[in-house]
């Protein structure tokens, strides 16, 4: 079975300018995603979709292919990732090859390990009923005990029916880790929904899940990387 990894990396990041190629512990951020994908058994091609010449040059330097320039209408602040992936998929189908599996891997995944990444692909290969497999993290606190702002500056429970429930009696809840989304070629092509019974959740350790959207997120990711390196040896 053949597999392609598509890394969407536009050049117009607003909250962290140049986020996708900004140095993170000695390497451009996107280099970590490229290296993880290249180190994963079963991956045949790692492709970067970008509108930036600078990102393209760095991506190629670390071993990814950049066979086209992403159109401007797919690189603005309003374009969704699914449209970007399906554009890359259509380009591959017309100009290169159709694969069995396609993965969207975000370029801001410096803490992702190849074995976790590979788990998504292996899930699809081992279970023909699955259409997708993607990374999730566990909420640190039960969401059923969440609070929201009330009137006159007070607070109310988001789920008041659980006001008397003990934390240990509530079901575990997870969130999209925002790192990778493996899918069958046809699932992406047909636009099948992700959050359904045909999807496998790949649990990541909490310390490997950081959504890097702000400077604070960036510094937290660096701290986690330092701790992982100190505990496990080698790079994060």
Topology:
Layout: E1 3-8, E2 23-24, E3 27-28, H1 29-38, E4 45-49, H2 53-61, H3 81-95, E5 101-105, H4 114-126, E6 132-138, E7 147-149, E8 155-157, E9 174-184, H5 185-190, E10 199-203, H6 215-232
Parallel strand pairs: 1-4, 1-5, 6-10
Antiparallel strand pairs: 2-3, 5-9, 6-9, 7-8
What does this structure look like?
This protein has a single domain, classed as Spore Coat Polysaccharide Biosynthesis Protein SpsA, Chain A. The chain starts with a strand and ends with a helix. Helices cover 30% and strands 21% of the residues. A six-stranded mixed sheet has the order 4-1-5-9-6-10, with helices on both faces. Strands 2-3 form a two-stranded antiparallel sheet. A two-stranded antiparallel sheet has the order 7-8. The protein is built from six helices and ten strands; from the N terminus they run E-E-E-H-E-H-H-E-H-E-E-E-E-H-E-H. Strand 7 and strand 8 (155-157) form a beta hairpin. The chain is α/β, with parallel strands linked by helices and 236 residues long.
């Amino acid at each position: 079975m053949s597999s392609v990894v598509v890394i969407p990396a536009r050049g117009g990041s607003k909250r962290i300018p140049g986020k996708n190629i900004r140095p993170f512990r000695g390497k451009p951020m996107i280099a970590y995603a490229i290296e993880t994908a290249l180190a994963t058994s079963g991956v045949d091609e790692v492709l970067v979709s970008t509108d930036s010449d600078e990102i393209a040059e760095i991506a190629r330097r670390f071993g990814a292919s950049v066979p086209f320039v992403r159109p401007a209408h797919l690189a603005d602040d309003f374009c969704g990732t699914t449209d970007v992936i399906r554009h890359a998929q259509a380009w591959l189908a017309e100009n290169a090859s159709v694969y069995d599996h396609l993965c969207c891997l975000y370029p801001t995944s410096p803490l992702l390990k190849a074995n976790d990444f590979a788990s998504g692909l292996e899930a699809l290969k081992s279970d023909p009923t699955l259409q997708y497999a993607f990374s999730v993290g566990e909420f640190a606190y039960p969401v059923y005990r969440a609070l929201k702002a009330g009137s006159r500056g007070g607070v109310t429970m988001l789920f008041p029916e659980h006001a008397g429930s003990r934390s240990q009696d509530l079901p575990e809840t997870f969130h999209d880790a925002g790192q990778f989304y493996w899918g069958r070629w046809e699932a992406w092509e047909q636009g099948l929904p992700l959050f359904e019974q045909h999807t496998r959740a790949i649990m990541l350790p909490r310390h490997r899940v950081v959504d890097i959207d702000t400077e604070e997120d960036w510094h937290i990711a660096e701290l986690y990387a330092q701790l992982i390196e100190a505990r496990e040896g080698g790079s994060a």
